[in-house]
Design a protein that fits this description.
It is a single chain. With 293 residues, this protein is an alpha/beta fold. The chain has one domain: NAD(P)-binding Rossmann-like Domain (Rossmann fold). The protein is built from 9 helices and 13 strands. Strands 3-2-1-4-5-6-11 form a 7-stranded parallel beta sheet, sandwiched between helices. It has a two-stranded parallel ribbon with strand order 7-10. Strand 1, helix 1 and strand 2 (28-34) form a beta-alpha-beta unit. Helix 3 runs parallel beside helix 4 (136-151). The radius of gyration is 19 Å and the shape is globular.
């Protein structure tokens, strides 16, 4: 991006949003907004599903060059009980932000999820494959995609990703490392497959899509795929953890309120073509993340 760009980043205190702030290209001024106070967050407590509050936010921050919308309701299991709230945060807010971005005449990037698919295909999902969410979280995220594209189709870019982790926030690799300090044996699901994706890889890609994007939907995940058991095993090995036995188990042995897609690997060829390179392999990205801790 050229000099004097100003970009609004929502969810700026979150695992992904905070990395987006740190990954801003040279010469770009970032305005972070979130419900919580944190480093890089200038605008606190804005309800992004409220048209008036969002309108006032855009007035306060002044002229913008773009929006990266990472804010989301991400408690996948709790969403089964709180679907109305999840829909407000994941669905309604996307439409409201899109309307504000359209009024400002700036492009926007909205972060989506593999949970919009049912995972039954057995093949990597392309951007134009038919969504079929099987959880409240997936339904609400799909509603957000559709709301934004309906309101502002000419400059909305949806970037679907999956299995996120990074230097900040709670995530699977961090949980495994914590549990490994407390236990000498772990059981991990081995019949769900996806692509672990580091925010260190994803955040720069979001900036590229904001500047260069020419399609409505992109898939963005690290190269390769594995099961949660595979990710747990690689995490402990890469971190040099010894003496902890990891046993594979089935989803049925580890029931959760929300159904997960069994095979939600994403085809990221469109993003690779846009950027001229893919995201790093999930193993390489994991080692980089562990080295950044």
């Amino acid at each position: 991006m050229s000099q004097s760009k100003r970009v609004l980043v929502t969810g700026a205190a979150g695992m992904l949003g905070s990395q987006v702030l740190l990954s801003a290209p040279d010469g770009v001024q970032v305005i972070g907004t979130d419900l919580a106070e944190a480093a890089g967050v200038q605008e606190v407590g804005v309800d992004l599903a409220d048209e008036r509050q969002v309108g006032e936010l855009f007035e306060r921050v002044g002229e913008l060059s773009g929006v990266i919308h990472t804010a989301a309701y991400t408690a996948v299991d709790l969403a089964e009980e709180q679907e109305e709230l999840a829909l407000r945060v994941n669905g309604t807010a996307c439409g409201v932000i899109a309307a504000a971005a359209k009024a400002a005449g700036v492009p926007q990037v909205i972060v989506g999820t593999d949970f919009v698919f049912d995972g039954e295909s057995g093949e990597a999902y392309r951007e134009d494959d038919e969504p079929n969410p099987i959880s409240a979280y997936g339904r609400t995220k799909l509603a957000g995609e559709r709301a934004a594209l309906e309101v502002y189709p000419e400059a909305t870019r949806i970037v679907r990703t999956q299995w996120l982790y990074g230097p900040r926030g709670k995530h699977f690799p961090g949980t495994m490392l914590s549990l490994a300090k407390e236990r000498d044996e772990l059981k991990v699901v081995d019949d769900q497959r996806g692509s672990p994706t580091s925010t260190l890889e994803l955040a720069p890609a979001l900036w590229d899509v904001l500047e260069l994007g020419d399609q409505a939907i992109y898939h963005a995940a690290c190269e390769g795929d594995c099961t949660w058991f595979g990710l747990a095993s690689e995490t402990l090995a890469a971190a040099g953890v010894q003496g902890v036995k990891i046993e594979p188990c089935s989803t049925d042995e580890f029931p959760r309120p929300a159904r997960r897609p069994v095979h939600s690997v994403l085809d990221c060829g469109r993003l690779t073509q846009l950027r001229g390179r893919p995201l790093a392999s999930w193993q390489e990205a994991l080692r980089t993340y562990l080295g950044s801790e």
